[in-house]
């Protein structure tokens, strides 16, 4: 990996490491989009920026692991960015009818997901309510479950890039299925692993007594990179030393596609965001 690429990945890590998962995803997407605020983009538009960032940093080929849901065998897969790119729909708005009432709504954004973070079992209803763009006689709390189901299906169709699945088949038991793929979780696992690997060679401050070396001839970018790596190592060391009461990320799902790091480190990707729409009532 070139010094430029390594510095880029360290910068991504520093921008995102201390954030909760969704804000971390937005930090990565902002870097890919080269704009500060990506929270109002649809989930699919945000994820396209993540795909572009992944290609820029690591190339177009993705080495993956997935567990067969039938026999439990761990399988290796190879995907490409092109496999994961979905053509955008022409419109990001849809409508369903409840009797004579037409309910119009838009695609989900990250800001919507942030707004319902920590919500109760009413998360799906609250999320859909944020997406409704027409005035209703009553609030969405009175909508029947059948209408919410219609709206959930329509929301998924509005933004297909937000809910990516890849075809997988098991060479052991011949089971075939569609495995969910989350580019946000996958990309972060790669950034985190690469940054962690680069930090292992920077165990001391470059000019400390214990690790003294001649650096006066280095260019300013090289010195800046050394400082950045040292800062990264120190933050990692403090994080490892600091006890945590709960994991920072959601637990990995058994059938989700996850990253295969260059040194075979198994890091599971986070679950697909759109499952919130379809799974919670």
Please summarize what this structure is.
This is Phage baseplate protein. InterPro entries: Baseplate_phage_T4-like. This protein is 43% helix and 15% strand.
Describe the 3D structure.
InterPro entries: Baseplate_phage_T4-like (IPR024364). Pfam families: T4_baseplate. This is Phage baseplate protein. It comes from Mycolicibacterium rufum. The protein has helices spanning 3-16, 21-33, 43-58, 81-84, 110-115, 123-131, 145-158, 183-199, 220-241, 275-279; strands spanning 61-67, 74-80, 93-98, 101-106, 164-169, 176-181, 258-260, 266-267. The strands form three sheets. Strands 2-1-7-8 form a four-stranded antiparallel beta sheet. Strands 3-4 form a two-stranded antiparallel ribbon. A two-stranded antiparallel sheet has the order 5-6. The protein is globular and about 60 Å long. With 281 residues, it is of the alpha+beta class. The chain contains ten helices and eight strands. The chain has two domains: 3-86 and 164-273, no CATH class; 93-158, no CATH class. Helix 8 packs across helix 9 (220-241). Residues 201-223, 239-254 and 261-281 have low confidence and may be disordered.
